[in-house]
Design brief:
Number of helices: 16
Order of helices and strands: HHHHHHHHHHHHEHHHEH
Strand order of the largest sheet: 1-2
Shape: globular
Number of strands: 2
Helix content: 55-70%
Length: about 350
């Protein structure tokens, strides 16, 4: 749902890194501890297993899509396919952070395969938008994830709303969930929009891949389904994909402090104070792709997913030692905090009436 940033950096741009400092309590000190624990090293065996397992789930779902004659089975499979697509999105996210492959043609090929070929979403668009978010999490005018016309996250945004968006913002907590059903469609549109605007050599690679993805997708749908049935399965899968993605990403920052664009906080404080962790559990870790360790992920985006829990022990102790607030809560409470914040912003919008 987030808008495309006004200025799109080059594809290889990465999230901004802080300037090193040897002061006690600095990011450099924390990073040395993370590196000493071996948590910055790649995990090829782990990701090979994840890719093979997720690929097997995708093949199972596509097999049902191509062979099953029952409309009800196809609807059930649409729900399952949305789950599989989200797991692929988590892998695409990890690939974009170079957790799987660090560089070179293999990195580019994996990013394009996971994003463009399997999800129908531009790897370039996702990488650039997400890196902008990592560089300036929850910062007004800088974080594309809080630059959403119909949703407000800060009092400044609430007071600036006007026109029809103001009506929506006044009751945003009630319209948020319906909006999530079009999230994946929005991502597809913004992907194509960026590639068409840029007219770059990258577009000549990515646009045909996006076109091929939707063509093959619909060819599979129409093997056993009528056009109305195929449309229903397609819409259901994409709608649930959007809801699942939002369910995984919303607890990470929504409802946490929103900083001004000129915030004086350093990198370490900015990343910790604007992020929320959800208690780890094998089921939660799997279903949310490790994003429930959001604080650690934002501090060290290159740390592989399966090492974030180890990183948490170091980061949490470091924050306690240096009196840096570290917020971790249950999944249910994280959603309550998100909706409480949305309602609080809505009250500011309504107070202008």
């Amino acid at each position: 749902m987030a808008a495309i940033p006004a200025a799109i950096p080059t594809f290889r741009a990465q999230a901004a890194s802080p300037r090193p400092s040897d002061e006690p309590g600095s990011y450099a000190e924390l990073k040395r501890s993370i590196a000493a624990a071996g948590l910055l090293r790649a995990q090829p065996a782990y990701y090979t297993r994840k890719l093979l397992f997720t690929g097997a789930l995708l093949c199972l779902s596509l097999g049902v899509l191509a062979l099953a004659r029952s409309s009800w089975l196809q609807l059930a499979n649409a729900v399952f396919l949305a789950f599989v697509f989200t797991q692929i999105a988590f892998l695409a996210h990890d690939a974009g952070h170079r957790q799987i492959i660090r560089r070179g043609l293999a990195y580019e090929a994996l990013s394009l395969t996971l994003g463009n070929v399997l999800l129908g979403i531009s790897a370039r668009w996702w990488t650039e938008k997400h890196n902008a978010h990592h560089s300036h999490p929850n910062q007004d005018d800088l974080d594309p994830d809080i630059d959403i016309p119909v949703i407000v996250f800060s009092p400044e945004q609430a007071r600036a709303m006007h026109g029809v968006w103001r009506v929506v913002g006044a009751y945003q907590a009630y319209v948020l969930v319906p909006l999530l059903f079009v999230q994946s469609f929005s991502m597809r549109v913004m992907s194509v929009r960026l590639l068409l605007i840029e007219h770059s050599r990258r577009s000549l690679v990515e646009l045909p891949l996006l076109a091929a993805q939707i063509a093959v997708y619909w060819w599979l749908l129409l093997q056993r389904l009528s056009v109305p049935e195929a449309l229903g399965v397609f819409v259901l899968t994409q709608a649930l994909l959007g809801v699942y993605l939002a369910a995984a990403f919303a607890p990470n920052h929504k409802g946490m402090p929103v900083l001004p664009s000129d915030s004086p906080l350093d990198f370490l404080q900015r990343q910790v104070l604007t992020a929320r962790n959800v208690y780890g559990h094998p089921v939660t870790d799997f279903c949310f792709g490790g994003l429930n360790y959001q604080i650690e992920h934002h501090l060290f985006p290159i740390v592989p997913r399966n090492r974030l829990k180890d990183a948490q022990r170091i980061v949490r102790a470091f924050c306690a030692e240096h009196d840096i607030p570290y917020h971790e809560t249950s999944l249910g409470n994280s959603y309550r905090e998100v909706f409480a914040h949305l309602n609080a912003m809505s009250r500011i919008v309504r107070a202008r009436d």
